[in-house]
Structure formats: structure tokens, C-alpha cells
Amino acid sequence: MNVVILGLSITSSWGNGHATTYRGLVRALARRGHRVTFLERDVEWYRSNRDQPHPEGCATHLYSSLAELKEERGGLVAEADVVVVGSYVPEGAAVGAWACATARGLCAFYDIDTPVTLAGLARGDCAYLTPALVARYGLYLSFTGGPTLRRLEREFGSPMARALYCAVDPALYAPDPAAEPQHDLGYMGTYSDDRQPTVDRLLLAPARAWPAGRFMVAGPMYPDAIAWPPNVARVTHLAPREHRAFYAAQRFTLNVTRADMIAAGWSPSVRLFEAAACATPIVSDWWPGLDELLAPGREVIIAHTAGDVLRALRDLPDADRRAMGEAARARVLAAHTADHRAAEFERYAAEALARSFQPARP
Fold first, then answer.
1. Which of 259, 275, 290, 343 could be stapled to 253 by a disulfide with Cβ–Cβ 3.0 to 4.6 Å?
2. How far is Cα 99 from Cα 107, in angstroms, rounded to an integer?
3. In sequence order, which residues have a C-beta less than 8 Å from that of residue 278 and are 6 or more positions away?
4. Between the CA atoms of 320, 302, 218 and 55, what dihedral angle is there, to the nearest 10 degrees?
């Protein structure tokens, strides 16, 4: 297939999880013989922090305005078999309306932020999608599965909603047998108001209660007012090439989920799959659907309190800790790699294309 993706960013992973997802997907699609073009709005935030200006597996073109996109890339969009518009694209609602009107093939929406999107649609302030556009896209690919997919079809009129979760590239994320853990618990994530109370409860509180423990938080945008305990190391940003070493340096890693994702359930983060692929044991908050991805107590530890975290860090035998990491790795590699997602993308696109070209009933 000839695939054109208009996404938030593939060239910069700074402060977003979209780039990692797109990079893995386009590499996998290219390996499967598809031709992929990625169109990205050239914005200062990412321009100053491009860690992969020429991603593997696709041709990448930057555009400075919607007018430039229409003028210079209209032919690409018109001729593509599948056009995908992603969530959080600048002027995304206008981009999507133009793409749907221009594409002669399938026009799809890839929502990497589905619960946030639906909350924005309910408030009437979603800048990159409208209820009318949901019905125009022939396929709605969602980072969130479960009941949300039926809601998209029944309440918003999507002709076809399917889960296309984030994924991991096993060529980039794997255990490092030579690494020695430097921290008892680490967490990687951009600051958000709704996640921070969980970070406080499941990492900062354990750090304060266990001064001998070693902790790490990686990610940008944390307010200066946060009082970091002295045994919590900080790093502002880690490029994807540094993620494997980050996980390898931890005895456990913490997974924290945004409030909208918890409410919707079935919303795994890319960090969850990355850590599992590195066989780093995961401590996670709870959300519906997590147990369908990783088995609690065997492949992931569910924590509600600081005490739950401290018991895992201090009491779980090291052999059991390593076995948990290996079990999670096996589970993720069996179902959640970029190649799995590319195969799912193919199936969904073929189904949506077949539906769109069926003759109307008399």
C-alpha cells in the first residue's frame, strides 16, 4: 500500500510519546513492503529537539502551514491508498476535513489520546477533531480498546473503530545482561497534573519512607516547586535511544496512567511495553483491561499505596523479581511488537477499504 501519515511528530520525541509509536509502525510497514510518507508540521518546540530528523522506513516532509500542506502535498494525499491523520496535529480538524475531501483512498484517524479526545469532544474544545469528522473518517484507529470502540461507533457515528495499541520494537528494547541496577524504582513520564498525585504516592512517598532506597524520575515539565527527596535522581529528558539503558538500570519501573485513560480502561502506555520488553519488572497503578495484557502478580505488580510499593522493592526475592520481568517480556513479544501492529493495520485498512467500496443496496 501507499500510506501517507499526517502526525504530530516523528522527528522529535521531546515531550511526546507519538514519535516512538510512529517510528516503530512505519519501520514495520516498510519491512512488510509498504511505501510510507510522513507529513509533520514544522513547529519550534520539535525543531529545536529533533533526535531523529530522518526516520527509517518513510519519506518525511515538514510543512509550515495548512496552506503549504494543501499546495505542496495535495497530490500525495489524493493518490495514497490510505491516509492517516493523527491526534494532536496542529489545526487537526481542518487538516482532517481537507484530507477526507482530498483522499481518493481510505482516510483514517489514529487517536493516540482517545480518552482525552473524547473528553474534549464532550466539552466542545477538541482542536484536532470534531464529532462530524469522526463519522467522515472511514476508520478510527484507537490507542484505547474495550468499550470505547463501541462508543465511538454508536455515539459518534464512526463507520469502523478498532484498537491499534502502542507497541515496542524488540530490536531496540531488550534486556542488557551486563547492566547493574542503579535504582530500586524508576519512572519515566512528562509531568501532568493528573498523573502527579500517583507519582507522589507510589514513588516520592516510598522514597521518603525508605531513605536507603534509590529512585529516579525522568521527564520534562516538572514544576520547580516539587520537593524532590534527596534519594530521587532527576533527568529532564531521555531520547528513545537511551530508554533501554534507563530500564536496565532499575530493579523495578513504575507505570503511571492519566486519569482519562484510567476511566476508559484498556489504554496501555508505550512505556509499559518498553519496560516489559527490557524484562524490567513493572509496578503499575490499576486500570480496567490491564489484566488482559499482563497477569497481576505474575507479570506485573499492582500498587495502590506506598506500602504496596515498598513491599515489592524490599521483600520480593530477587529470583522472583527477575522471573516476573522475563514473563512480562515473553507476553509482550508474543502480541505487542511493531510488527504485530503493522499486521493489524493492514487487516483493518483492508476491511475498511472493502466496506467503503461496496455497492449501495437498492
1. 275
2. 7
3. 173, 174, 175, 176, 244, 247, 248, 325, 329
4. 90
The three cell numbers of residue 187 are 519512572
Which candidate, 146, 137, 91, places its Cα nearest to that of 115? 146
Range 104-113 average pLDDT: 96
Model pLDDT, residue 294: 98
| Residue 291 cell numbers, joined | 489484566
Nearest partner of 255 among 209, 312, 334, judged by Cα: 312
Phi, psi of 182 (to 5 degrees): -105, -15
Cα(241)–Cα(129) distance, integer angstroms = 32
Residue 67, amino acid: A
In the CATH scheme, what architecture does the domain 183-335 have? 3-Layer(aba) Sandwich (3.40)
Residue type, 314: R
* Fold assignment, 2-167+338-356: Rossmann fold (3.40.50)
Chain centroid, CA 256 distance in Å: 13
Q: Give the integer Cα–Cα distance in Å for 90 and 203.
A: 34
Residue entry with cell 483491561: 289
pLDDT in tens, 256-283: 999 989 999 999 998 999 999 999 999 9
Name the segment(s) of the chain with CATH classification 3.40.50.2000.
2-167+338-356, 183-335
Buried b (16+ CB within 10 A) or exposed e, 40-65: bbeeeebeebbebeebebbebebbee
Handedness of CA 309, 310, 313, 317 (dihedral sign): negative
Kindly give the residue spans of alpha helices, DSSP state H, lying in the chain: 18-31, 44-47, 66-79, 92-102, 114-123, 131-136, 147-154, 196-199, 205-209, 243-248, 259-264, 270-277, 290-293, 306-315, 318-335, 338-356
Which sign does the torsion angle of CA 198, 200, 204, 206 carry? negative
Taking only the tens place, the pLDDT of each residue in 14-47 is: 778 899 899 999 999 999 999 999 999 999 888 8
